[in-house]
């Protein structure tokens, strides 16, 4: 299996603290050593860093841990391969362009009969069940709205319905973003927390590191973090329910459904 | 304008030496300070590093200069903005998936009436003439071969014909790769060099750095580098002709046409 990490914020925020915790699970405190990746949106652009090597001792992960890249929408993944060999093309997150936007996605879980999923115009490059499912979701979306969806909220509602179908084929926890919205879909396990004023100190579970958010934020900041397992051990994370989807934008919940 | 750098090799080879020279032109020895990017293929996967900041003092460029990422197909770009503001979404190279492969592209030049270029299913995310032209090329390719091209050589031949049309609209020097093949198209300026045994010492033009390739290669290695301006000052680079396209694979010329 794998682990997911997402962030939605109302001001460009770096993810160094959370990523420092997550990357330890990629070969040190956890078994997810078969590659990792992270995508940072900056307006309509997206910057993705990927490495098929374990995150805990990756040179590229050192850069991501230490160099604060600020973003309002981030998604990250550490991989423990089940379907598809260890390789760059099988490393999450995956990205495709649709309607003049980059859509980025990462998956935790395992699907059966994924090769039967219809896809086109989007085609998998690698061999993971995850990328097949992503191509299926975006292809369904593109085919359902040949002239683009009348709103992006409608597009995400449509994706959530299709995610319910994938949930029936196995384990399908996933994050999907277009740079503004971030959809978190829970099949078995996903937690989230929204940090806002008054901020306090948070302590990582996987590393002897804490951060005093009062030193790094202003009173108006709203930052939501989503993760497979809580990343801190002194905060209350909310547990999502199987079949639940939450659509975030600028750190706030926009729509909650299912579950 | 901008500068291009490409590499095609028959063994995974790093591009640290050439990139060290190129990045200096992004704000120090050259005016191309409006962002930079580089894409490294690893089999069917592609790893892209981009930054809208000047390459000569970019943290991300430090990683690319110092950490040898090995690849058989690389393309890089440093930008001096003319069409489209300085932003991540306007930073080259651009990537799209078609037929289960990632196609990556970078452009040097300036096109007139680029907004008239027909595109779809691929849509620009940013506002550069370069990305419009890329979406035009891939859309024409996808529409011409609805069930994919019978060979990738045929696909690149088709792209070259369309590149000739873009050449008539302004300046269109470009690099385009699917990970195996790399097409270099010259509208005004592009140079290339193939290094093979017996290897010797090369000296950068932009920095007091030289490299003894005999220490880094085996007798069978073939490495071609393509650049807007020669990157070394003690080697013979070949100048491409306006309208000329060269398709490389594994460091060797596969097809040369036009010019």
Describe the structure.
Chains A, B: GO terms for molecular function: transferase activity. Chains A, B: This is Class II glutamine amidotransferase. Chains A, B: Pfam families: GATase_4. Chains A, B: Keywords: Glutamine amidotransferase, Transferase. The structure is a homodimer of 259-residue chains. By secondary structure, chain A is of the alpha+beta class. The first copy, chain A, has a single domain, classed as Aminohydrolase, N-terminal nucleophile (Ntn) domain (Glutamine Phosphoribosylpyrophosphate, subunit 1, domain 1), CATH 3.60.20.10. Chain A is 19% helix and 37% strand. Chain A is built from 4 helices and 15 strands. A 7-stranded antiparallel β-sheet of chain A has the order 3-2-4-1-12-9-13, with helices on one face. A 6-stranded antiparallel β-sheet of chain A has the order 5-6-7-8-14-15, with helices on one face. A two-stranded antiparallel sheet of chain A has the order 10-11. The model of chain A has no long low-confidence stretch (mean pLDDT 95). Chains A and B meet through strand 3, helix 2 and strand 5 of A and strand 3, helix 2 and strand 5 of B.
């Amino acid at each position: 299996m794998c682990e997911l990490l997402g962030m939605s914020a109302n001001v460009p925020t770096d993810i160094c603290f959370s990523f420092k915790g997550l990357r330890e699970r990629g070969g040190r405190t956890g078994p997810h050593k078969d590659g990792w990746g992270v995508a940072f949106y900056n307006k309509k652009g997206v910057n993705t860093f990927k490495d098929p090597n374990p995150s805990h001792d990756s040179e590229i992960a050192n850069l991501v841990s230490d160099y604060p890249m600020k973003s309002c929408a981030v998604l990250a993944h550490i991989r423990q391969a089940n379907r598809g060999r260890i390789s760059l093309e099988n490393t999450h997150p995956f990205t495709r362009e649709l309607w003049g936007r980059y859509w980025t996605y990462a998956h935790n879980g395992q699907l059966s009969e994924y090769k039967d999923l219809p896809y086109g115009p989007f085609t998998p490059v690698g061999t993971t069940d995850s990328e097949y499912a992503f191509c299926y979701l975006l292809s369904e979306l593109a085919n359902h709205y040949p002239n683009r969806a009348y709103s992006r909220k409608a597009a995400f509602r449509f994706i959530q319905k299709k995610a319910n179908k994938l949930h029936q084929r196995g384990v399908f926890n996933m994050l999907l973003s277009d740079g503004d919205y971030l959809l978190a879909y829970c099949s078995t396990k996903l937690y989230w927390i929204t940090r806002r004023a008054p901020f306090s100190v948070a302590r990582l579970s996987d590393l002897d590191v804490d951060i005093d958010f009062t030193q790094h934020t202003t009173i108006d900041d709203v930052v939501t973090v989503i993760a497979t397992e809580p990343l801190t051990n002194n905060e209350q994370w909310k547990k999502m329910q199987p079949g639940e989807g939450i659509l975030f934008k600028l750190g706030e919940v926009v729509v909650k459904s299912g579950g």
